[in-house]
Structures are given as C-alpha cells and as structure tokens.
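quick one, two chains, predict together pls
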Amino acid sequence: MKTKTTKRGKAPSNGGPDKLWQLRLHVAGRTPRSQTAFRNLKKICEDHLKGRYSIEVIDLVEHPLLSRGDQILAIPTLVRKLPNPVRKIIGDLSDTGRVLVGLDLRPARALTVVKTPGKEGMA
Amino acid sequence: MKKNPSQSQFASPAVRLPKSPTGIQGLDEITGGGIPRGRPTLVCGGAGCGKTLLAAEFLIRGAAQFDEPGVFMSFEETDAELEINIASLGFDLAGLIRRKKILLEHVYIERSEIQETGEYDLEGLFVRLNYAIDSIKAKRVVLDTLEALFSGLPSEAILRAELRRLFRWLKEKGVTAVITAERGREQLTRHGLEEYVSDCVILLDHRVHEQIATRHLRIVKYRGALHGTNEYPFLIGEKGLGVLPITSLGLNHAASNRRISTGIARLDAMLAGRGFFRGSSVLLTGTPGTGKTSVATSFAAAAARRGERTLYFAFEESPSQIIRNMRSIGLRLDPLVRGDLLRFHSARPTLCGLEMHLATMFKEIAAFQPSVVVVDPLTSLLAAGVEFESKAMVTRLIDFLKGRQITTLFTSLTHGGHSLEQSEMTISSLMDSWLLLQDFEGNGERNRLLYVLKSRGMAHSNQVREFLISNRGIDLVDAYIGPNGVLTGAARAAQAAREKAEALAARQDAAHRQSILQLKQATLEQQIATLRSEHEIEAGDLRRLDQQAGTRTRVLKTERVELARLRQADALTTPGRRVRPIPKGRL
C-alpha cells in the first residue's frame, strides 16, 4: 500500500540543533522493501538532520533476539532511540510526510495521528 | 453428526487424524483425543470466558504431561502477568521455564507509538516466533490474542494477508497452535479469523441466566474428525478447566447384583428384604419435616458403621447441626466422623453456580473415594442452576457416581399442593429407587408415612408404612388401613384398642351363644328321652294287648274245637289247598 508522497514547504521542527538522533532500522534480509526503506530514510535524514544522526541497520534474520528487545513485529520498522521518547515507524518510509510526523520533525496537525507524548517504549 | 459424545464414538474415525491431547478434563473426550496435531486451532469467545486459560492449560499440560515444549506468545498480558495467572493452575511454571519447556513471549504493541509510512510485512513477528520455537524445540504454540494486531497496527489489508501467511507458516512448521480471538457480533471472531483457521474452531461462551452464570464450550468445527456438537458446560476450577461431557448417554455402567442395607430393618424388608442395589441412585422425596434427613443419615451411618466410607453433602445444615440433631434419634455420628468413615461437606447452594458445586463434589468424591454418597437435599442444589440444565447436571452426577459403583441417596424437598409424583418428573426418571415420605394430618396430629414408589429390579412392597422417629431411631410400623382410610399415630392406636375391645366382646358373645345352644341341646335331649320313654310305655301296652288278644283267640278256637267235638260234627277240611286255574293266553 503506497501512499502519495507529500511535500510541504514547512520548515522542519526538529528536537534542537545540538541533539544527536539515533535511529535504528530493523529489516529482515536484503529484500527490495528493506532497501527502499533504507534509501528513503537516508534521504530524509540528509534533508532534515544533516550531520547529527546515526543509522543502525539490524537484520533480524541474523539477530533474531533483537526483535524481542525492540518489540519489532512489522518489517521494516524504524525506531527512534534518541531523542526520547522512543518512536516507531513502520513501512518502507515512502510517505515522507508521515515519516516526518512520526519522527517528530513536523507537528501532527496535518495528519490525524493520535500521539501520547511521554510514553516510554520498551527498550 | 451423532449426538452421543462418549469417547469411544469419536475415537476411531475412518481416517485417523493425528491429535494432540490437551490434557484438559473432558475436552479430550469430546474431541476424541485432542486438537489436530500440527495445525492451528481457533478458540474464540467473549471477554472473560476463559480463552487464555484454555490456551495456557493446553500449553502447560503439553509441557508437563506430554513432553511437548510450548511457546506462549501473548499480545495482551506481560510475562509477569502471565506467570501469575498460569501459576494459579498449580503448575511449576518457573521450573518449566527454567528447564526450557515453556517460553513466554510478550509482544508489545502500542498504536500510538507506531506511525505507518508505507508498505510493511510482519516478518518481525515471524522471525521472533521462529526463534522462540526453535530455541526450545517447541511443539505447541499459543497466540493470545492475535487480534490485538488489528488494533495495534494500521492497514487491515496487509494484516489479513500476513495472518494468512502466518497460519500457513505455522502448519509448515508443524506446531500445534492455539489461537485465541474475541467473539464478534455476527462472526465467530471480530476480525473473521475463522476464515484462516479451518481445521478446528472452539467457541467459548459465558451466559448469565437468572443471575447464574454458566460457561459453555462448543466445538463449532473439527475438520476430519467426529466430535460432540453439543454445548458443554465447563468450569474454571482450582486446577484449571473442566469440561463436563454428558457421558451417561452412553449408559454403559455395570449393574451390580450386590445389595446394600438402608439402615432401617423394616425398610430393607420392604425392598425385597435386602435393601437397595449397590451403585444405584435413590431418591427420597418428602414435604418439609417428614424425616428425609433422618432417613438419609440412618443410611449413611449404617454404611459407615459397616466400615464403608460415606460422604454426606449437606446443602442446608452444617455438619455439627446434623450431628447434634441425629443424637436426638439415637444416632451417634461423631465417632464415625472421627474415624473418618463419615465425612460431611457443607456448602450453601447459593455460594456458586451448579456446575461449580458439581466440580467441588467431583473433587471431594475423587479424593475421599466413598462407597456411599448422600446429597441432602438435591432440590436446593438444583435451585442453584437453571431448570433445563439441572437435569443434565444431575445426569452427569449420577453417571459419575454410577461409574464408580457408588450408592447414592438424594433427598428432595417437595412442596405441598400439587401431586408429588408430578413435581419430581424431571429427576425421578433418572433414579433407580424412589421412596416417598408423606405426612398425614388427622385428629389433630401429623404422622409420617413411607411408601416405596419404585425400585427397579426388585419385588418391593406396595404397602404404606407408618414411619416413627423415636429416641431409639427410626422404625416402620404397619399403618391401619380401614374403611375410613389410613389411620396413623394416636388414631391407629385407638383403632387398635377399639379392635381389641371389639374382639373381646365378640369372644364373650360367642361364648354366651355357645352356652345357650348347649342349654337348648340339653333340653331337647331331655324331651327326646321323655318322648322315648312314653313311646316305650305305649309300646309295652300294645304288646300286652296283643298278647291278650292272641290268648283269647286261642282260647276261643280251643273252645270251638271242643264244642264241635262235643257236637260230633264232621271233620273240618284243612284250609289253604286250592287249585288255581291256568290262564288261557299262556298256551
């Protein structure tokens, strides 16, 4: 299910200029979808978080135990480990607008997504 | 589909389907050996109807009893919560986890933390499940409740495709899986999971009828196997689930020829001299205060005194109350209780539902192994259930007891006003013997009567007996049945006295008549003697006259001959020689 990519001319509301963004992308094997997800993530980070992000790709086929710790069901899943709180974004990240909302880089008013801030994920 | 759910009927289908025993009491009987091995089984039902417990018990018993390790993947409860819940079943869960027989896997989904940004699949779940299964070489898997995925993850279309893949994958993996799902409004499950699980579907239900909740289990579908299609009540006890199949429809318990005394000699006499059959069920009905408990206790005490273990379920009185009350009729129960030959189990009927009572009773019976059971009274127990279910429950109880050759006495309280026979219609047909206690009012007193209404397989008395309770126990005496109906108590005694007086009077009367008769006879004989003597006198006179007449004739003749001689007359011809002429017709 592919959603249309929306590009709006709004400036990104990031979590502060000094914060390091620690992102973890969970995939299962080198599937086309996981590669698409990685490409999309790389592009978004370059556009919005240039120079202050790290991406860790975890292949669950190789490290199945890690799926337990991060409570991963869907593949691909992007987990924002830092800054807090933990956010999870599933899918191939092709909907840039939703990714930005999910990463808290853009307020959710454009989209109807219910958020409960402050809820700690299971790390 | 056959209605009869006895084990033998489902155990041998034409093509034997491999089955995994659940170890859950009763469930393996109605499924003919368990759920399909190596395939997913769907367990659906509303909230709080025991889905998770069924799944957990299947898994734990698999690990503990059948050496089949299992993975419990929970989408709702955390590992710690699960451990507490499952520990209540009485299994050493921690030990099983330590020995790698059980693996708890909590899958945490929080919709609010998840943002969907494109296509995805559930490979993460697959990887996780696969790893869990492989790490303990699991044969069984529980997914509880998979439908949490629908609320936790967006895009139903993707989920459906992935679930279809999951069930296929589980089959390929060869694990016996139990998947729980919430009951939907129009479908069996809220999200139509039954579409994907086509092998076995079990529906659980929790209904409240007249303020009494009963759990039911039904096997909606079991591909490739015969199964019981009925709704079976089940209960959640201390040791997990228990399904109660109506095994009595098989009616194959052995009948004993041995007899057991009722504890009342005259009652034994009424039952062909030897009491009830062993292993039979006896119903004792009566209106309030007719002595049901006294008869029941006499029976129980007699059995216990013979050294047979007796279990007494009291639903109206406490054990100490029964012991105290029975002392007043000369029954000392406390030594029997101390010797553990007689055990009481008291509970208020309203304490819990009927099926829970039955489960407790089953448990007590299994623990005590009695040969005699008394249920006093059955009616208040039945009041704890819904009428149409009560009979099925009693059937199960009777069947359970008969299967163990336990002689059971049920007392039943009937209310005045309508025919006693009619009021017991529902349960009396299940009973082998039926005693009726009745009280009879008249002459300002109430007296008790006892009848044997029926007693299968023996020539029982058709007589009504008066039933006396004294401080020396229970006795039965013949009731007086006269032209004015049955007389009992003081009236019977009065009648007896009256009869005695009448008999005495009759005896005196007879003696009197006898003496009159004798007198008459004496008079008559006297008269006869008088007459006879008169007759003899007359006869003597007659003889004398006769002699006189003969003498005179002789004298006359002599005189006449003399006279003729004197006259010189011719000789007289000798008389009597005349010749008869010969009749003409003879020649």
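Confidence is low (pLDDT under 50) at residues 1-14 of chain B.
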